[in-house]
Amino acid sequence: MASARTPGSTAARKGRLSRELVLAKALELVDAEGLDALTMRRLGQELGRDPMSLYRYAENRAALLDGVTELVLNQLSIQPKDPDWKAQLRHIAHSLRSLALQHPNVVPLLVTRPLSTPLGMRPLGTLRPLEQILSLLIEAGFAPPDALHVYRAYYGFLYGHILNELQEFVVDPEENEALLRLGLHRLPPREFPRLRSLGPDLATYDGSAELDQGLSILLSGLESQLSVHAG
């Protein structure tokens, strides 16, 4: 004879909800199907819960998106007390690139969503990297206004690199010939001679190496600027 169900047995089998669990499932959904798939209704279905119960953990879809952004950025390890500020900035850059490649559907949230929200009204988790990098630079000897300029240049370069890497498009990955692989053979030779000639370089794009090369240029310039101010 089957035992009678006790009140709450279904909830117990499902496990208790928490903000962490809700956001983890939201990130999983975004990773699998993109930002448009993330709605309260769909998330409730994925969790096996009434969508109305989710409003306890996120007041609306915008709050869900902010939570997903924070969840990803919380994985970014920053050591603001590191005396080797250049090594730390290089480490942060590679860490953020790695997160972007793991969660490409979240990148638009990282790059464009903050533009629609005043700085002081953004989720705290999205502001911590800014606070920590400013601390790192000021500890290294940059004046606070200069540290802010460095941060802007650094993140402008970094986000530009990430967006460029994510949009690298291979028409036919099985094709060995670079022009055909990238679809460059479709471009008029007289109008795009340089782009067509760079086919082999474009086809062998190495995101990590490109990031390092760009960082070397940027950090060398910043070090020179710091030396001038120190002198």
TrEMBL record:
Q: Which residues bind DNA?
A: 39-58
HTH tetR-type domain boundaries: 16-76
Q: Which UniProt keywords apply?
A: DNA-binding, Transcription, Transcription regulation
Q: Which Pfam families match?
A: TetR_C_1, TetR_N
Biological processes, Gene Ontology terms: negative regulation of DNA-templated transcription
What molecular function terms (GO) are annotated for this protein?
DNA-binding transcription factor activity; transcription cis-regulatory region binding
Known SUPFAM superfamilies for this protein? Homeodomain-like, Tetracyclin repressor-like, C-terminal domain
Q: Protein name, please?
A: TetR family transcriptional regulator
Provenance organism: Arthrobacter nitrophenolicus
